[in-house]
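ugh ok fine here u go
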Amino acid sequence: MSIEKILTEGEKHNIEFKSYLSSEHLSKERKQRLASQMKFRLERGNGTAYYIIGVYDDGNICGLTEKKFLETLNVIKEISKEVGAEIKRVERFDKNGVFARITIENNHNMQNKSHLVIGTIGHVDHGKSTLIGSLITDREDDGSGKTRIFLDFLPHEIERGLTAEIAYAVYGFDEKGNPMKLRNPLNKKEVAEVVDKAGRLISFVDCPGHAPWLRTTIRGILGQKVDYALLVIDASEGATSITKEHMGIAIAMDMPMIIALTKMDKVNNEESKNVEENISILLKKLGRVPYKIKNPNINIENEKIVPIVKCSAVTKEGFDLLDKLLFSLPDRSKKPETLEKPFLMYIDKVYSIKGVGTVVTGRVMQGVVENNRDLYLGPFEDGYRRIKGQTIMEHYHYLNKAEVGDVIGIALKNVKKEEIRRGMVLAEKEGRRIREFIGDVFILSHPTTIKEGYEPVLHLETISESVRFEKIYGKEYLSVGDRAKVRMRFKYNSYHIEEGEKFIFREGRSKGIGGVEKVLQVKKWIE
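structure:
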């Protein structure tokens, strides 16, 4: 693209404008902010970013003296080193002084990578675990779910062919988009090698599809801050009530979705066409645009578009298309504003590991965390505690630091497993301690009416606890399709929650969605 066109179209994707940078920009706080910004531009450009210096944010040229040009170039060089990149080319132009286009590229050995979390959802026996097991190993299934053993970890799951707990699978791509298949996904050393070398890393959160485990499915979708939902539908059976329920949850949470139409080896063309048409009708009713993937030249930017891929774990049909799609998906988690915020992670699981101590796992929601950092853990009844975060691991691979989007485990010092509960946060700064909040709720299903005193289970991030509807504003009761402001109170504990966070609540056959509009009873605890 010509420099004139760049200045006209302005900053976007992997293009950044800078008027002037001095040595003052290399102070710790400013340097970190500039590094986060550069990482974002590099990721948007698949490893290449363009910095236009000597121009204002609106594209007008300000021009630089030779001294200021060299100062700015030096700062960009230092920031590039910080993020594992380097300057590849400098193009100078003269107009009212010097301005330039600087091409920056990732080093091949850099640790900064794109990391997506994809939740596989859908009805029981539709082949979610089998599809992922075959995809990541490039092995054909025998038709009875042989490859699901790589995701079903508990003995009773393997025996019954059901996933009762959230399972993780790791999948990597090199910088050119070639998939890094695993010989044995249960081999920790092999998985760690993929995490280390991949240019794009995908963590599949494989959620259970059986109705009694809906709570665990919701936990997987919300608790891991899933970037995309992969809805698996058996082509020989079509969309079931569970399929529609999972689809509704993903759409209610504004989550981009991909549909894998599996078991294509079991249907003929006419049967396949009928299932596709029914799915398309369902998606359109829900405000989504179905898009049948037929060739590898894929670029899905609009989150309302739902790609549909026909595939089979038995024949590996559609695997090439699915690989191309997964590699091309935009990274939704790493934005400058989330990278620059203080580190925050909602705790998903807690372990006590011999020789290591207490380990908590979760997905980094914002910011960056490094080894051996002082962090805050809580909220407890008396506030937050200062603790030491020690080693960091991502899928068996040790990290010096982790950032927003990474799914990690952190070893904690001087705290016992029994003291920590799911839904707490690990944070760089002391968090909130919230018991009550105002929620904007919408009722999806309920057999009768909902009145004040109603007590459903609320799912928000990794929080899963009963809440009480203390007050419904403007209405005496709520029924299906109603929307209202409700003052809600956690029944047992206080949590760190923030305005704008989305939640699901459920109780029996009743379900609703909502968002936190205002937090109440904010208490700041000081050491």
